[in-house]
Specification:
The complex is a heterodimer of chains A (302) and B (277).
Chain A: E1 5-8, H1 27-32, E2 39-48, E3 51-61, E4 66-70, H2 77-85, E5 92-97, E6 100-101, E7 109-112, H3 125-129, H4 131-135, H5 140-153, H6 169-181, E8 187-191, H7 199-216, E9 219-224, H8 227-233, E10 236-240, E11 248-254, H9 265-288, H10 292-301
Parallel strand pairs in A: 4-9, 4-10, 7-8, 8-9
Antiparallel strand pairs in A: 1-11, 2-3, 2-5, 5-6, 10-11
Helix pairs in contact in A: 5-6
Chain B: H1 26-54, H2 62-74, H3 77-109, H4 111-124, H5 133-140, H6 144-168, H7 172-180, H8 185-219, H9 228-238, H10 241-270
Helix pairs in contact in B: 2-10, 3-4, 3-6, 3-8, 3-9, 5-6, 6-8, 7-8, 8-9, 8-10, 9-10
The chains are: A alpha/beta (302), B mainly alpha (277).
Chain lengths: 302, 277
């Protein structure tokens, strides 16, 4: 383990490092070879009326990379992710997946939402997971195969006939992940998917995510405000500045062996840097809102 | 895989919609029935006291009402009235739901449809059906059509409004999820919007059923030979207060029964859509 942190000045290609013993090839892994789309964001900005949410975003995400978007709350991480999913359009610059401009929602660009409200409550887990294949008109047998494979992947085969309302929060997020993967997308976008879960469940799901990502070969863009989560999962971490008009502040390559060890000195160093970067942005945001003086006074008073 | 829950297999969506069983278990159920019985007995007692105070020319007592009901049942008037009114209500209400739900879906989903239809809905929903009784008879004659149309009129707006409100309330992330999973606009409407809206349609249908009962009496004011509303109106000509009581109580019971049936069907068939009734 040499110097594990390498700060880039400009977006570049982070090498994909997968440090696992070769496992038996599954159908998922075979499929993985054709998977993984490259996302390229160039000079992108998003405005809503007069409000400029993000601007000057440059990100080059190679196929198969796991990128974490990290930033203070309200900085526009989710807005950027929505644009990557095609839910909203960039107002300037360009956003392409494998060279094709993202012009609308696409099965190739899967989205795991923060809230499990995104599941279809009136459908069983099986029906939720096979929604994508069903929309494409896949046969019943194909749907069953897909459900079996991807529910197996997230460990919920035994819950196929239950309804989302009968599952715990963590299980519902697994269903969301399986539902997206069942479409075999090139890119999986995850919007703080574990933000609403308790610490233990979150930890388990983070490990699961790392495992699933390795086996699927998808490109993942993962939005979070949790520094540890980013270090645990990412190939690269992009830190965003505080909004409005947020942009990418810095980009770190996480060159640490997987599975990641949080107590690794290099990981600790990276955490401190990330914390510094985000702390700076949070202070800046508070300064803009005129909150910092008040905080200083309170700190002195205390 | 460390998380496995063995949560009870309650009906769908216990998270957002707490479980409500139609049939409370054991002693609780008995208690409920007992309290219902007490309430009804107290009501009958009050009714009896009022009847004794004002006399049969103003208030028919429970006993007089019962014997009047026997009399009307024996010559077939009561049964025919129930059947005739039920037919009008069910046809008019059924058509109202069948038209109101899809129109509400389109209004909620397609902006141009909303903009075209909203002025009319906002206008007509303030005009009570009784205002149209004369026009209905003049235009549609004294047959069944005029009555069914009036019931339809009273049902359709409330179903439409409830359905479109339901469409507006569909969770945005569900719509986005469906779109990004590859569903077309039509598939989103059919597979996501419609199922999400079921509880709202059902509420609209129940309110519409209530409205239909309010309207049936006015619909039958003019030129109905048979029906509960007609029974109430013609009883006046004969000075039979007890028949009026029979008509009113039968209407109430009939409404209660229909609502109950609707709820049972909804619970059985639609509960996975989050229908809470």
């Amino acid at each position: 383990m040499t110097e594990g942190i390498e700060k880039e000045t400009a977006p570049g290609n982070g090498a994909l490092t997968v440090a696992t013993a070769p496992a038996p090839r599954t159908r998922t892994e075979q499929a993985a070879e054709k998977r993984g789309a490259a996302l390229r964001v160039e000079g992108a900005g998003i405005t809503f009326g007069d409000f400029r949410a993000v601007q000057n975003i440059d990100l080059d995400i190679p196929a198969g990379e796991f990128l974490c978007l990290l930033g203070p709350s309200g900085c526009g991480k989710s807005t950027l992710l929505s644009a990557m999913a095609g839910f909203i359009q960039v107002s300037e610059g360009s956003l392409t997946a494998d060279g094709v401009p993202v012009s609308g929602p696409d099965p190739e660009l899967g989205m795991v939402f923060q809230s499990s409200e995104a599941l279809f409550d009136w459908m069983t887990v099986h029906q939720n997971v096979t929604f994508g294949p069903r929309m494409r008109g896949c046969s019943r047998a194909e749907q069953d195969r897909v459900a079996d494979e991807f529910l197996g992947l997230v460990g919920l085969r035994h819950c196929a006939d239950r309804y989302p309302g009968q599952l715990s929060g963590g299980m519902r997020q697994r269903v969301q992940i399986a539902r997206v993967l069942a479409n075999e997308p090139g890119v999986v976008l995850m919007d703080e998917p574990f933000g609403a879960l308790d610490a233990q469940t979150r930890q388990v799901l983070q490990q699961e995510t790392a495992r699933i990502w390795r086996s699927s070969g998808c490109t993942v863009v993962f939005v979070t405000h949790d520094i540890d989560e980013a270090i645990l999962l990412a190939d690269r971490v992009a830190v965003m500045t505080a909004g409005p008009a947020a942009s990418i502040k810095s980009l770190y390559t996480v060159d640490l062996p997987r599975p990641r060890d949080e107590s690794d000195p290099a990981a600790l160093r990276l955490r401190n840097k990330l914390r510094e970067d985000i702390g700076e942005e949070v202070r800046k945001a508070m300064r803009d809102q005129g909150l910092d003086d008040q905080l200083d006074r309170e700190a002195k008073g205390a | 895989m460390t998380i496995t829950t063995t949560e009870a297999t309650a009906p769908a969506r216990p998270r957002t919609r707490p479980r409500r069983t139609g049939r409370p278990a054991g002693g609780q159920g008995l208690r409920t029935v007992g309290l219902y019985a007490v309430a009804v007995l107290v009501g009958l007692g009050v009714w009896q006291l009022v009847a004794m105070k004002y006399g049969p020319s103003l208030v028919a007592s429970p006993k007089e009402t019962l014997s009047a009901a026997r009399e009307l049942a024996a010559d077939g008037t009561l049964g025919n009235s129930v059947i005739a009114s039920s037919r009008r209500i069910l046809i008019g209400w059924g058509l109202g739901v069948l038209v109101g739900a899809p129109v509400g879906l389109l209004i909620g989903q397609i902006t141009i449809v909303r903009q075209l239809l909203e002025p009319y809905i906002e206008f007509f929903r303030f005009i009570p059906p009784v205002a149209f009784v004369t026009l209905a008879v003049v235009w549609l004659g004294i047959g069944e059509t005029s009555k069914v149309v009036l019931i339809f009129y009273t049902a359709v707006f409330i179903v439409t409004l409830n359905t479109s409100a339901g469409v507006m309330a569909v969770n945005e992330s569900k719509l986005r999820a469906a779109a990004s999973l590859g569903a077309s606009r039509r598939q989103v409407l059919q597979r996501v919007v419609l199922p999400s809206t079921v509880p709202y349609i059902l509420t609209g249908a129940r309110l519409a059923m209530g409205n239909s009962f309010l309207t049936i009496v006015s619909a039958e004011i003019v030129a109905a030979q048979v029906g509960l509303g007609s029974l109430i109106w013609t009883s006046r000509n004969y000075g039979r207060i007890d028949w009026v009581f029979v008509g009113i109580i039968t209407l109430g019971i009939l409404g209660l029964v229909y609502d109950r049936i609707l709820r049972v069907i909804a619970m059985r068939v639609l509960h996975k859509y989050g229908a809470k009734v």
